[in-house]
Amino acid sequence: MNISSEILLNLLASYLYPFIRISAIVSVAPIIGTRIVPVRTKIGLSIALTIIIVPLLDAAVFIEPFSVHGVLTIMTQILIGVMLGFMLRMVFSAVEAGGQVIGMTMGLGFAQMNDPANGIIVPVISQFYVVLATLMFLALNGHLILIEVLADSFRTIPIDIMNIGTTGIWELLSWASWIFKGAVLIALPAVVALLLVNISFGVMMRAAPQLNVFAIGFPITLTLGFIFILVSIPIFLPQFSNLLDHSFLSIDKIILRN
Known about the structure:
29% of the residues are buried. Helix content is 75%, strand content 3%. Helix 3 packs across helix 4. The chain is mainly alpha-helical. The chain is built from eight helices and two strands. Strands 1-2 form a two-stranded antiparallel ribbon. The mean pLDDT is 77. It has one domain (5-256). It is elongated and about 90 Å long.
C-alpha cells in the first residue's frame, strides 16, 4: 500500500489544528492550566483529547499546514482556545479577588503565601477560597463540561481563518466585568459584618477615649472575621456556582454566534 505525501499532509492537518486549539485551552483553563501541572502532562492530555475528539468531527476542509493560510489558521486556533479557557479562568480570579478583600478587611493583608499554581504572592484567605473553589469546580463536574464545550466548539466554530468574529471579543470584554462583580458578591457578607464591627469600635473610641481600642480591636476583628467566613461559606457555594453558569453561558454565546 502506497501512502502519498498528500495523504500524510491531510492526516497531519486533520489532527494538527484541533490539537492547537485544545492545547491552547488546556494551557489557560483553571486547575489543569496552572503551573503546578507539568508541561508533559498538559501535552499528554492535549494529545489524548485530540485523539478522542477528532474522529467525532465532520471532515474539514484541507488547509496545508506549511502555507500562509495554515499559519494564520494556527494563530486563529490559539486565539479561540485562549479565549475559551480565559473566560473560565476569570471565575477563579474573581474568587481570589474576593478573598483578598476579606483578608484586607479583617487585618490579614500582611499574611501572604506563595501561590504555586500561579507563581505569585497572594493572601492566605484568597488561597483558602481558591482551594474551596477548586473542590467545588471538580464536584460540579466543571472539567467534564469544559471538555464538552471544547468538543462542541469544533462544530460551531469550524477550523478556518478569523472565524471567531468581533462578537466573541466583545463578549469576552463584557465578561471581564464579572471579575469585580463576583469579587463583590463573594466578599460582601463578611465585609459588611466587619464594617459594622469597625464602626462599633469607632463608637467605643469616641465614648471612652482612654480605652486602647487598637490593642483589643485587632484580635477581636480577626476572630470575628474567621467566624464570618465560616458562616458565609454556605452563601459562597451558590455564588460560585452562579459564576460558573454565567461563564459557560458566555462561552456558549461566543460559540453559537459565530
